[in-house]
């Protein structure tokens, strides 16, 4: 049972070829490019959603921050579509791999920090010391703020990985428990099934929320630094 | 068998069974040809089911079901261990 539980998180490869690349590229098939003024229904729905989200997300940024619009929107689109596709049975979710989330988090965070240091050096350095700290506390506080800055990409990546992995594991475990309980006691199996349904609804929400949180935090880091 | 149109240019449904090996061998297996085949297949599906005036949920749900089936086939080997058999 131990090996079976984590086997679904292994990167899939067919005859040695890593088809994980295909699976990562699959969500792009579901978002066709709009080619006309009035498009088909799928594209219209997606355009409406993207407009809604982008207005919300870019409202807090100034001119310089809004150049990141494409990056943030494609980020939230990618993470939410990958998470939602991972809820289909037997599918592989790339965002459960820490390597992938680190690959997303570190460059984006580093981009915001480097932008801040390049264009507003004094203000970026000033972030290390909150206003109004008593004098003796200053050295320790600078150290603490540095650590909290350096931990931001790790937290971004690990948060996403842990949430999605935990959700998938719970679904696997409770589903297995439901199946095992059917022969023993039907009512308990029914209750476990209800729990499974609730959990699946939660996972849908978590999939979307995690995407949102990731993107929101990146945009916040951006806002601090532009 | 006498056929007035050369085998190479016929569509698959019009090729007679005896001519099938010849037809397959004449297809374009270069990377460009394979990419062209994927592109043609994609646009055939897209224009039939999604790029229509009153497209429904069927267009995209067929894609998702195909994705699920693909993943099922891929993880079949691990799934056989989870069957309800006495001896695996």
From TrEMBL, chain A:
The keyword Ion transport applies. Its main location: mitochondrion. PANTHER family: ATP SYNTHASE SUBUNIT A. Belongs to the ATPase A chain family. It catalyses: H(+)(in) = H(+)(out). Keywords: ATP synthesis, CF(0), Hydrogen ion transport, Ion transport, Membrane, Mitochondrion, Mitochondrion inner membrane, Transmembrane, Transmembrane helix, Transport. It is a multi-pass membrane protein. This is ATP synthase subunit a.
């Amino acid at each position: 049972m131990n090996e079976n539980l984590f086997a679904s998180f292994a990167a899939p490869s067919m005859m040695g070829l890593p088809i994980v690349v295909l699976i990562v590229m699959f969500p792009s098939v579901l978002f066709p490019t709009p080619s006309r003024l009035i498009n088909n229904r799928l594209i219209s729905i997606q355009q409406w959603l993207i407009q809604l989200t982008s207005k919300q997300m870019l409202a807090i940024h100034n001119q310089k921050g809004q150049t990141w619009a494409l990056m943030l929107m494609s980020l939230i689109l990618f993470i939410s579509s990958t998470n939602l596709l991972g809820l289909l049975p037997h599918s592989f979710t790339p965002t459960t791999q820490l390597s992938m989330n680190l690959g997303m988090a570190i460059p984006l965070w580093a981009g915001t920090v480097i932008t801040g240091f390049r264009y507003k050096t004094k203000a970026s350095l000033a972030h290390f010391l909150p206003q109004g700290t008593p004098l003796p506390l200053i050295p320790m506080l600078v150290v603490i703020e540095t650590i909290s800055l350096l931990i931001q990409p790790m937290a971004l990546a690990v948060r996403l990985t842990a949430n999605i992995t935990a959700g998938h594991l719970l679904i696997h475990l409770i589903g297995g428990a439901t199946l095992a309980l059917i022969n023993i006691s039907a009512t308990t199996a029914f209750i476990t099934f209800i729990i499974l349904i609730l959990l699946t609804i939660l996972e849908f929400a978590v999939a979307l929320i995690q995407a949102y949180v990731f993107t929101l935090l990146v945009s916040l880091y951006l806002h601090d630094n532009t | 068998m006498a056929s007035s149109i050369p085998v190479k240019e016929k569509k698959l449904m019009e090729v007679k069974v005896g001519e099938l090996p010849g037809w397959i061998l004449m297809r374009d297996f270069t990377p460009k040809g394979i990419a062209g085949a994927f592109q043609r297949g994609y646009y055939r599906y897209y224009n039939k089911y999604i790029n229509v005036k009153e497209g429904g949920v069927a267009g995209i749900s067929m894609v998702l079901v195909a994705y699920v089936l693909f993943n099922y086939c891929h993880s079949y080997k691990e799934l056989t261990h989870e069957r309800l058999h006495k001896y695996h």
